[in-house]
Amino acid sequence: MPEAIPKLLIVEDDLDVAEMLSAYFRVQGYEVLSVSRGEDGVRACQTTHQDLIILDIHLPDIDGYEVARRVRGNRRTNKIPIIFLTEMSEQSDRLQGLELGADDYITKPFDVQELRLRIRNALRRANQDTLTNPVTGLSEGPLVDERLNDCLHEENWTMLIASLENLETYRETYGFVASDDVMRAVSLMVQNAVKESGCEHDFLGHLSPTDFVLITGQEKIIPLQEHIRSRLEQSLEYFYPIKNRTFTPGNRLKFKLGVLNSSEGVYASLDELKLSLLHKKK
Fold first, then answer.
1. Measured between alpha carbons, how far is 8 from 18 in angstroms, rounded to an integer?
2. Hey, what CATH topology would domain 142-278 get?
3. Cα–Cα distance measured from residue 88 to residue 274, given in angstroms and rounded to the nearest whole number
4. Rg (CA), the chain
5. DSSP string, 144-161
6. What is the pLDDT of residues 185-222, one digit of tens each?
7. What is the pLDDT of residues 36-88, one digit of tens each?
């Protein structure tokens, strides 16, 4: 059975940008519908199936925020991934869009290849129902929640949280493709450390896109923690160009590690367990 053609809705009032995106993504194998007004975008979502929305914030009638509110507020459309187009200088646009449930954002002027990768990742997340991370391939979402929930009813478990800090700053400087490469490389280093120092029944997944959680036996946690710390501390500098390895404006990539043991208390809910784990980062 042939694979369904992904359908993109572009809501953009700049006709040159809209025509460029429409032409490019049709060549990439997408079915594209382009509209220039927010009301038309909402109507298109409600009357035809769309797999993803590319949504400009500044539209001539209602703005992109209102479009997103209506899309997220409708039971039929609330799962459609949304990628916001924002102005380079307007960080508040990005934050407000993410608060409304946007899956991603990209700033103008943008690299169309970068947008293509962001669309690919968003569609993968939607198609996989957030069971695995589209960049690292590790479990996330419901699969991780299920395993953590099991721990609420078990004894003698130990968890390690490994958090990659300042990836957003790195992405803004070096681009989306480079930040994905960092996450893939870090994921492989953590996985290799688990293979070399852990047990076959260890569980590794994402607590968030930049937070890894490892569930293992108490006797393995110290060697695993040191193995992962050693691997990562030796490698983070190499993600920067040679000229920037001694100095890069802004916050540099770094790792925080923390350990949570079952002996530290009883957790009444999954959310309480997650919060305790996140507080262990240092």
1. 12
2. Alpha-Beta Plaits (3.30.70)
3. 34
4. 21
5. HHHHHHHHTT-SS-EEEE
6. 999 999 999 988 888 789 999 988 899 999 988 888 88
7. 999 999 999 988 889 999 999 889 999 999 999 999 888 778 889 999 887 75
Pairing of strands 211-216, 158-165: antiparallel
What are the two backbone dihedrals, phi and then psi, of residue 126, each rounded to the nearest 5 degrees?
A: -65, -40
> What is the enclosing helix (H) or strand (E) of 214?
strand 211-216
Write down the domain spans for the chain: 7-127, 142-278
Q: What are the structure tokens assigned to 235, written together?
A: 């490698």
d(CA 89, CA 108): 9
Give the Cα separation of 68 and 238 in Å (integer): 39
Alpha helices in the chain (DSSP H): 15-27, 38-47, 64-73, 91-99, 112-127, 142-151, 167-174, 176-197, 221-235, 270-278
Q: Extract the tokens encoding 131.
A: 């069971």
Residue 87's SS3 state is: strand
Biggest distance spanned by C-alpha atoms of the chain = 62
Interatomic CA distance for residues 234 and 274, integer angstroms: 28
What architecture does CATH give domain 7-127? 3-Layer(aba) Sandwich (3.40)
Closest Cα to residue 79, out of 69, 67, 71? 71
User: Which residues, other chains included, contact 243 with Cβ-Cβ below 8 Å and sequence gap of 6+?
Assistant: none
Which single residue is written with the structure tokens 């690299």?
111
Distance CA 143, CA 159 (A): 16
Residue count (the chain): 282
User: Which sign, positive or negative, has the C-alpha torsion 165, 167, 172, 178?
Assistant: positive
